[in-house]
């Protein structure tokens, strides 16, 4: 398939979250840029092994040479299996001699799993990290893996290789890589007419890069892949003591490459990306800075392949969390102003969209000298407000706005909580001297935050949390205080999300004490201009406002309440009418995604009055 047909990437991996018992199965994630990843299937396995050890690791996907089939191969290993007793020595001397294989024509529908014995003929004690590449010179796929063998009493790991035309029948294995030290985790990428190979040295626990003009050298009497030439990469090779599982891919339509390496000790960051703009050159691989990329949740050893738009769409349709089926609106999708007479435990949604909340414990309405009637939580156990379950599902682009007066002195509590449990959540915490919002899909150790300091206790202030995909921003009193990119999205939290005011997902945390007013959720990310210029409604002296400034996919118009119907028209710079409608509403949203960049004229006719303003499309 032509490289220009690719628009995104699929990453297949097993999970590094060993707190879950299904970590050694097959997980998927997708990306449009190769460095910002979205979990699929709510970070649950898409394929589960039922053969052999009933655990699979190190998955590798290859697109067939004809482009119509995908083969996924993986290590047959469950490190928790009782027969190993937790011993990696036994896992590498009395382990499986088979690899696991699945097939698919669309990456969504997969064949039944099959287990193929490839290494018993060489007396292998293990068959780890199988990968594959098509060898054009022989018209066969090479499948290669690492094994210890009985002929030298399992003294060292080597890479072995077998040929297959169909991933059903395999030739007898031959030595592919044999070095002074044990080596595992070979990974090969073809660039032009050159093959680049990453491999792990088991002595120094580090990864290096080499290259060759042919996959196999039949004249080499030691091993068929021993004629590769080392390419010095000082930075990559400086990471020693706990690095393995490398894989490599080229960015779509770019002369840029990414080598992913698993950091499994020390900081335990999981896969970390090294970037090169000239993979053939020495010292070209450089590690990206923390906070400038986002890997899938818990991603371990796996592989990244380029995919087409159709393949991307199929994967997202099958396994991504869907966005709410709502019309994007200039006004809040949810609005609690707490001005109604409280009847029972139900808070009325003033937006008219019926997203009412439920009060628990001592939660009640109270009169505030500044704000009038507000929501009061007294900090006692089980006193909180619950949003409708599932309301926040798929809201990766949204704005939460609320007025808060905190009175809480506890150390650990959540003012606002959205998520599933104490692993997957977003929270807001309003302390006396700090306001912090964080999101995670791997509990507190992997939280990414926006934070500000100041004096907040016993005073009213407005906070806005803006989620824009993998970007999170926080505003205090309509002033931007912090922004963080490459955060988990709301969709990454999963489905059937819970939402609370005053309650944490950690059972030992305190309950929030304080007041809330004007709790609103917009089903879009409000722009910086909208928030900082208070553009959500016109002033009493102004007939109407246009926002965002500049606008992009949508043009929002906010009017003072008309007593008569008004006609709203939009013209391009040449005076051509693009759209026209009659409205009795205060707020109107016009889809403008198809409008080219430029200047537009918005005209509003109300009775005898004609009003105009210019608007700029970015």
Notes on the protein architecture:
This protein is mainly beta and 618 residues long. The protein is elongated, with a radius of gyration of 29 Å.
> Which descriptor suits the 3D outline?
elongated
Query: What level of helicity do the residues show?
Result: under 10%
What's the tally of helices? Answer: 4
Euclidean distance between termini CA atoms: 35 Å
What is the number of E strands? 43
CATH superfamily of the largest domain: Glycosyl hydrolase domain, family 43
Share of β-strand residues: 35-45%
Structural class computed from helices and strand pairing:
mainly beta
Point out poorly predicted stretches.
Answer: none
What is the oligomeric state here? single chain
Question: Radius of gyration from the CA trace?
Answer: 29 Å
pLDDT averaged residue by residue: 94
Q: The CATH topology of the largest domain is what?
A: Tachylectin-2, Chain A
Mind telling me the CATH class of the largest domain?
Answer: Mainly Beta
In the CATH hierarchy, the architecture of the largest domain is: 5 Propeller
Write down the domain tally: 3
**Largest sheet data:** 8 strands, antiparallel
Question: What is the topology?
Answer:
Layout: E1 6-15, E2 27-31, E3 37-39, E4 56-63, E5 70-76, H1 88-93, E6 98-104, E7 114-117, E8 128-135, E9 140-147, E10 158-164, E11 174-177, E12 183-191, E13 194-201, E14 206-212, E15 229-231, H2 234-237, E16 243-250, E17 257-263, E18 270-276, E19 286-287, E20 299-308, H3 309-319, E21 334-336, E22 346-347, E23 357-360, E24 364-368, E25 372-378, E26 384-386, E27 397-406, E28 416-419, E29 425-430, E30 434-440, E31 448-453, E32 461-468, E33 471-476, E34 479-485, E35 498-501, E36 513-522, H4 528-532, E37 544-547, E38 554-559, E39 566-571, E40 577-583, E41 587-591, E42 598-606, E43 609-617
Antiparallel strand pairs: 1-2, 1-20, 2-3, 4-5, 5-6, 6-7, 8-9, 9-10, 10-11, 12-13, 13-14, 14-15, 16-17, 17-18, 18-19, 21-36, 22-23, 23-26, 24-25, 25-36, 26-35, 27-32, 27-36, 28-29, 28-35, 29-30, 30-31, 32-33, 33-34, 37-38, 38-41, 39-40, 39-42, 42-43
């Amino acid at each position: 398939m032509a490289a220009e047909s690719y628009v995104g990437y699929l990453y297949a991996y097993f999970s590094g979250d060993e707190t879950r018992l299904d970590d050694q199965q097959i997980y998927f994630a997708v990306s449009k840029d190769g460095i910002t990843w979205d979990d699929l299937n709510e970070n649950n396995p898409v394929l589960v092994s039922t053969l052999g050890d009933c655990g699979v690791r190190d998955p590798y996907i290859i697109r067939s040479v004809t482009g119509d089939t995908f083969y996924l191969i993986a290590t047959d290993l469950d490190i928790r299996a009782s027969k190993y007793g937790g011993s990696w020595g036994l896992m590498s001397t009395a382990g499986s001699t088979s690899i696991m294989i699945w097939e698919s024509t669309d990456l969504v529908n997969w064949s039944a799993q099959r287990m193929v014995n490839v290494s018993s003929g060489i007396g292998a004690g293990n068959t780890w990290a199988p990968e594959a590449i098509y060898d054009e010179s022989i018209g066969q796929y090479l499948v290669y893996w690492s094994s210890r063998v009985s002929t030298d009493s399992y003294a060292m790991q080597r890479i072995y290789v077998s040929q297959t035309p169909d991933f059903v029948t395999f030739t007898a294995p031959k030595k592919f890589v044999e070095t002074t030290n044990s080596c595992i985790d070979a990974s090969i990428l073809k660039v032009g007419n050159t093959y680049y190979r990453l491999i792990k040295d088991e002595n120094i626990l580090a990864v290096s890069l080499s290259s060759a003009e042919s996959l196999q050298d039949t004249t080499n009497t030691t091993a068929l892949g021993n004629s590769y030439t080392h390419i010095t990469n000082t930075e990559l090779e400086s990471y020693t003591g706990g690095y393995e599982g490398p894989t490599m891919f080229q960015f779509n339509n770019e002369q840029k490459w990414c080598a992913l390496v698993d950091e499994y000790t020390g900081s335990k960051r999981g896969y970390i990306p090294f970037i090169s703009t000239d993979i053939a050159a020495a010292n070209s691989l450089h590690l990206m800075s923390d906070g400038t990329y986002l890997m899938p949740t818990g991603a371990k050893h796996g592989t990244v392949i380029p995919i087409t738009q159709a393949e991307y769409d199929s994967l997202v349709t099958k396994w991504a969390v869907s966005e709410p089926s709502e019309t994007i609106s200039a006004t809040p999708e949810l609005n609690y102003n707490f001005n109604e007479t409280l009847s029972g435990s139900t808070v009325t949604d003033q937006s008219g969209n019926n997203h009412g909340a439920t009060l628990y414990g001592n939660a009640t309405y109270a009169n505030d000298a500044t704000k009038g009637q507000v929501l009061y939580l007294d900090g006692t156990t089980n006193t909180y407000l619950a949003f409708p379950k599932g309301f926040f599902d798929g809201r990766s682009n949204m704005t939460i706005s609320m007025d808060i007066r905190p009175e809480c002195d506890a150390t650990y509590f959540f003012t606002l909580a959205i998520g599933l449990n104490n692993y997957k959540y977003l929270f807001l915490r309003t302390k006396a001297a700090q306001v912090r919002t964080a999101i995670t899909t791997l509990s507190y150790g992997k939280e990414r935050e926006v934070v500000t300091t100041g004096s907040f206790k016993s005073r009213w202030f407005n906070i806005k949390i803006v989620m824009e995909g993998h970007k999170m921003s926080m505003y205090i009193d309509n002033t931007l205080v912090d922004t963080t990119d490459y955060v988990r999205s709301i969709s990454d939290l999963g489905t059937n999300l819970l939402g609370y005011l005053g309650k944490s997902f950690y059972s030992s945390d305190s309950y929030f004490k304080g007041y809330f007013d004007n709790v609103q959720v917009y089903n879009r990310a409000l722009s910086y201009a909208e928030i900082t210029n208070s553009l959500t409604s016109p002033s009493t002296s102004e007939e109407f406002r246009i926002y965002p400034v500049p606008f992009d996919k949508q043009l929002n118009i906010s009017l003072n309440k008309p007593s008569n119907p008004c006609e709203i028209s939009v013209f391009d710079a040449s005076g051509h009418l693009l759209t026209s409608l009659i409205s009795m509403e205060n707020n109107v949203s016009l889809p403008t995604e198809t409008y080219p960049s430029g200047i537009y004229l918005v005209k509003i006719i109300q009775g005898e009055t004609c009003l105009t303003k210019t608007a700029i499309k970015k």
